[in-house]
Amino acid sequence: MTDLPTEAPTHDREDTGPLPVLAIVGRPNVGKSTLVNRIIGRREAVVEDTPGVTRDRVSYDANWAGREFTVVDTGGWDPDAVGMAALVAAQAEVAINAADAVLFVVDAVVGITDADEAVVRVLRKSGKPVVLAANKVDDQRIESEAMNLWSLGIGEPYPVSGMHGRGTGDLLDAVLAALPEAPAERDGEVGGPRRVAIVGKPNVGKSSLLNKVAKEDRVVVSDVAGTTVDPVDELITLGGQEWRFIDTAGIRRKVKNVQGHEYYASLRTNAAIERAEVVVVVIDASESLTEQDLRIMNAVEEAGKALVIAYNKWDLMDEERRYYLEREIDRDLVQFRWAPRVNISALTGWHMDRLVPAIEAALEGWQTRVPTGQLNAFLGRLVAAHPHPVRSGKQPKILFGTQATTMPPTFAIFTSGQIEASYQRFIERRLREDFGFVGSPIHVQIRARQKNKKR
Q1: How far is CA 254 from CA 18, 54, 387, 403, in A?
Q2: What is the predicted pLDDT for the residue at 202?
Q3: Which residues make up each annotated binding site?
Q4: Which domain holds residue 420?
Q5: What is the pTM for the complete model shown?
Q6: Which of 10, 49, 82, 274 is spaced 20 to 30 A from 413 at the CA atom?
Q7: E strand map for 185-224
């Protein structure tokens, strides 16, 4: 029977103190991300046959036998790595040092390689408890070959199949034995940190922005577009409070037009937007605004999330270029004038202190509620000054309105007949002028009174 962990809680779990951390390491393409998905009980880590799909250390919440812990998936560790692969290996070593225990994954079909032995030396030096997983053991024949991994000298190899779930129950029992107990629940704390997703096209500086706000290299940064694949969650303290920042893969084009791991990365980026409360859209100031930039912002607005626009690499512009760029932005972003905009440099930290106030302002607008009495007084003044145009001898009247929800602010306007789309946009614009809603989309729903049909 396949061993399958129970569904782990989502990232939105209530914070009850730091959970024990399990780092999953191994050389490229041994099936670490497949095993991660098996452990957390859902397909969240990007999996593809191509080596090197995972590049950053990515955290997930897991639950086994009633105990919660954090799983950190890492990129493939290669002792001879250069370039981006060396950055990935460095992230894996950081994960080992930060973990309470390590799950070392070896491909049982291939057997022990020089790279595996190099990983063992790093693990011994770390002094962390190690559980050895012999992965890709899909049948009894390969299970006997997995016993050869005893020669690594780091304990019993647990034969498992990340693909089919074979043996993962025994493996997770061993993992729990290696991990320390989670601390007792802290009293009086409810909810979790505010969730901020960082999105944008590839290579606009999203990962650099996350590293800068974290004040350390949390994720891999490279000039190669598409370095980030999985959404990367990081808890960061800024402005005296804790935030959960989510770095996402660059959105190149419409999801239906991408293939391979880019397709799954795009889906996970869209899921990160849905999970976030406020989205920071990063735009490269050294390039002209593109249709893809606008498509991303439209996606945030349609998802009903608070929005902050960050123009990165602003320090690369001279004074004359900045002067004209400001005017281009006013023209190109006319439909998003309600969103706070910050001009920053994620590389140097220039004006990064403006980011948190912009995020806080957007969240405040996103949560704004207008009392019903105040709203109807506003609608009365609006209709008196600018009544709906008469069409075919008819003039629909606004009867009353109410704010149905916040996050985002959503209004139900009850009318005697259908309202023209232009007049509905006029109402939205005047709502912003009177009540603000900085950084938040607002939705106005017209509910026309139905006439009784004669029988």
Answers
A1: 38, 22, 41, 33
A2: 84
A3: 26-33, 73-77, 135-138, 200-207, 247-251, 312-315
A4: 372-448
A5: 0.60
A6: 274
A7: 194-200
Whole-number Å distance between alpha carbons of 134 and 111: 9
Pairing of strands 101-107, 306-312: unpaired
* CB-CB neighbours of 168 under 10 Å: 23
Is residue 362 located within the same domain as residue 380?
A: no
CATH label of the domain that carries residue 244: 3.40.50.300
Q: What is the spatial distance between Cα 275 and Cα 280, in angstroms, rounded to a whole number?
A: 13
Count of CB atoms situated within 10 Å of the CB of 361: 19
SS3 272: helix
Shared domain check, 210 and 303: yes
Label residue 250 by pLDDT band (50, 70, 90). low
Which of 348, 366, 384 is the C-terminal boundary of a domain? 366
Q: How far apart are CA 263 and CA 256, in angstroms?
A: 8
Annotated binding site for GTP: 26-33, 73-77, 135-138, 200-207, 247-251, 312-315
The per-residue pLDDT for range 353-369, each reduced to its tens digit, is: 999 999 999 999 999 99
Least confident of 27-41, 48-62, 122-136, 224-238: 48-62
Report the distance separating Cα 60 and Cα 36, nearest Å: 9
- 348 plus 387 within the same structural domain: no
Residue 214 pLDDT class (50, 70, 90 cuts): confident
CB count in 10 Å sphere of residue 383: 13
Q: Domain for residue 5, yes or no?
A: no
- Pick from 186-195, 219-228, 332-341, 371-380: least confident: 219-228
